[in-house]
Fold each of these.
Amino acid sequence: MKRRYLLVLAAAAIGLPLAAIAAAGSPERAAILAEYATRARAADPGFSGFSMQRGEALFRGSFSGGDARTPSCMSCHTADPRQPGRNAKTGRPIDPVAVSVDPRRYTDAAQVDKHFARDCKSVLGRDCTALERGDYITFMAGQ
Ligand code: HEC
């Protein structure tokens, strides 16, 4: 209860709609999204929230800037994030990345940061922006 109250206060302080917190599903994930929202707003004052649709487009898109073995997030995470994936570079299995299957996904800030930096570079040839990161997590939180 107390934790939820604090979360609401934090959300109000940074101007995040409560619906965004509900969509995030966990205080840790909400905090990560709040941080990305702050950065996205700093990069673009017109920022008006994350988009599940844009997150899905990033997840399903095919890109040419990165490693030829991984043109897409789906190259390793498969077309259905509720299913186990396979690392297209190492062949190692990857647990599902959809929040409905594993609620601990996108709740460890260091882990999230490390993977965005590494995986976006592999697919896009560059890190993902704060906007792309927030969109992606918003999409995965609904999967
Ligand atoms: C080369 C294979 C590969 C590709 C391509 C890939 N990922 Fe990943 N990703 C992984 C692995 C491995 C993990 C760690 C899985 C685990 O924790 O079980 C992971 C985990 C993540 C996580 C952290 C999940 C968590 O629990 O916090 C994020 C965020 C992520 N990936 C984003 C992306 C995005 C965005 C793309 C596309 C731009 C992408 N990944 C493409 C291999 C990949």
Note: The two ends are 26 Å apart (CA to CA).
Amino acid sequence: MSKMKSVAMAVVLSLTGTAAHADGSAANGAQKIKTFGCIACHGRDGISKLPEAPNLAGQVQTYLTSALRAYRAGGRKNEMMNTVAEKLTDSDIADLAAYYASIAVSVTPPPKP
Ligand code: HEC
């Protein structure tokens, strides 16, 4: 197989892998936020407990998944998140993303100028 072909194949396989784990379980995620300590910084409610940490409540699930994968792979750099994410399996990531995405949020935009 040529190098180009094997690279293309690896991309296809990794995309297939993503799809297989895309669902995740919010119920499992509810346990894993404690196991992995996410709650210390992002809260059980997905609202930041630390000035540097973002809110995760109701965030788009595919975005959460790709952010966690990027921290794990090291392409996205943040000392805290790289350390946390390096321990996560694909199914941990799917469950954690499902959990934070499942938190209902409501928003009130500012009044129109
Ligand atoms: C020690 C505090 C800390 C812990 C523990 C922690 N995080 Fe974070 N998290 C942060 C900080 C700080 C950022 C912002 C990093 C940056 O600037 O990229 C962040 C960013 C993120 C983002 C990216 C959000 C975005 O809007 O792009 C996700 C997703 C995330 N964390 C999920 C988790 C999950 C899931 C866990 C548990 C496995 C976890 N974090 C544990 C501090 C923490």
Note: The chain has a mean pLDDT of 88.
